[in-house]
Amino acid sequence: MKQIFVKDLKKDMEIIDFFMVKSVSVRTGSTGKPYLDVTLGDNTGEINGKKWDVGASDHLLKEKDIVKIIAVVNEFNSQLQLKIQRIRKAVPESNPDDIMDMGNFVKAAPEDPDDMYGYIKNACEEIKDPDYRKLTLKVLEENREKLMYYPAASKNHHAELGGLLYHTKRMLMNGERVCEVYTNLDRDLVTAGVVLHDMQKIFEIDADTDGMASGYSFEGQMLGHIIMGVKYVEELAAELDIPYEKKIMIEHMVLSHHYEPEYGSPKKPLFPEAEVLHYLDILDARMYDMEEAVRNTEPGGFSDRIWTLDNRRIYNPKKQKE
Ligand SMILES: [Fe+2]
Ligand SMILES: [Fe+2]
User: Fold this and answer.
1) Average pLDDT value for residue range 38-67
2) pLDDT value of position 103
3) What is the extent of the structural domain holding 98?
4) Are residues 181 and 233 in the same domain?
5) Between residues 282 and 296, the one the model is more confident about
6) Which of the ligands is closest to the CA of residue 254?
7) Does the structure show a pLDDT above 80 at 1?
C-alpha cells in the first residue's frame, strides 16, 4: 500500500514511500559538489526533493520511474521540499501490484472521463442550430478515444489525465452562466466555440494513455493548435456542408481565443461570443493554476513564482481558528 500522498505531506514528517519521478537531474551545488534534484509525484500532486550525496545508481533514475524513498519533509521559501536520504527504483517483481499500479502516480482530473464526456455531449445535443450541432457532435465522436485521457497542456494548467475534457467542461459550465447574464449572446455559438477551441491539442501535444505529455508533435511545433484548429474546421465544414458565414465565425473563434499575437492569435475577437470564449478560457486556466499554487503553499505563505500567472507569487491565507 502507498502510505502517504503528496497532498497530505506536512513539514517535519519522516516518510518511507513510493512516488513517480516526474523530472530528475544531477546538478552542481555552490560548493562544487553534485546533488540530485528530483521532482516526485503521485495522483495528488508533485513535490521537489534534493539528495545531497549522489550515488552511482542515482544517475540512472529517469522520468516515470517508480521509486521508493526515505526522506524528511522540509520547508524552503514557504514550499515543502523533501530531503531525501535514500532513493531507489522500485521493481515490479519485489513490490506488490497495488504499488506498481500507475493509477497511484498519474495526476488525473477529479471527475470521471465518461461523465465529463457525457456532459459535453449533452451540451452539444442541446444546441438548437443544426449546423453547429452536427459540427460539434462530429468532432466529439471523432476524437472520443483520445479525449478520454488527453491532457490540455504539456505543463501547467490541466496537464493531467482527462485534462482537456475537464477544461472544456468547466468552460461550458461557466459559458452557460455567462449566457444567462448577457442574453444577447448566441448560446449555440458559445458552446460550439468552447468545444472546438482546443480540440487540436490532441494532435499538437504528444501524450501517452496516462495523460502524460512528452512534448509537441511536428505539426504542433510548426503550426500549433490554433492554426491546426482552423484547418480542422475548414475540412469538417466542407464535409458537413456548413454554410460559409457560420464556418468563418467558428474559425474566427478558434483563431482569436488566445487574444494576443504573442500568444498565437493573429486576430483579436471581432464579435461578442468570440470575446466571451477568450475570457472563459483564461478564467479556467488561471483558476486551475491558482488552485494548484495555493494547494502547494503553506498557510500564511506565498507560492513560488508562476510563469503562467505573469510570475506572480500566490498567497495562501492563514487558516482561521474555529
Ligand atoms: Fe488554446
Ligand atoms: Fe483552452
Assistant:
1) 91
2) 80
3) 6-104
4) yes
5) 282
6) 1
7) no
In a domain, 306, yes or no: no
Instruction: Dihedral sign for Cα 261, 258, 143, 149, please.
Output: positive
What is the pLDDT averaged over residues 300-314? 93
How many whole angstroms separate alpha carbon 164 and alpha carbon 273? 21
Give distance in angstroms: CA of 199 to centre of ligand 1: 9
Task: Look at the block and give the residue holding cell 526515505.
Answer: 70
Q: Provide the domain count of the chain.
A: 2
Residue 248 Cα to ligand 1 midpoint, Å, equals 18
Please indicate, yes or no, whether residues 159 and 277 belong to a single structural domain of this protein: yes
In the reported structure, the alpha carbon of residue 5 is separated from the centroid of ligand 1 by a whole-number distance in angstroms of 31
Residue type, 60: L
Q: What is the mean pLDDT of residues 200-225?
A: 93
Classify residue 255 by burial, with Cβ atoms within 10 Å: 0-12, 13-18, 19+: buried
Residues 180 and 35 in one domain: no
Q: Determine the pLDDT at residue 322.
A: 57
Ligand 2 centre from 280 Cα, in Å? 8
227 part of a folded domain: yes
If you measure from the C-alpha of residue 276 to the centroid of ligand 2, how many angstroms do you get, rounded to a whole number? Answer: 12
Is residue 315 situated within a structural domain? no
Q: Within this chain, do residues 72 and 118 fall inside the same structural domain, yes or no?
A: no
201 C-alpha to ligand 1 centroid (Å): 8
Greatest mean pLDDT among 100-114, 210-224, 266-280 lies in: 266-280
- Ligand closest to the CA atom of residue 152: 2
Mean pLDDT of the chain: 93
CA–centroid distance, 274 to ligand 1, in Å, is 13
Ligand index nearest the alpha carbon of residue 227: 1
Give the distance (Å) from ligand 1 centre to CA of residue 37: 31
**DSSP string of 141-190?**
HHHHHHHTT--S-SSSTT-SBTHHHHHHHHHHHHHHHHHHH-TTS-HHHH
94 and 198 co-located in one domain: no
Q: How far is the CA of 176 from the centre of ligand 1 (A)?
A: 20
Assess contact for 267 and 251: CB atoms under 8 A: no
CA of 257 to the centre of ligand 2 (A): 8
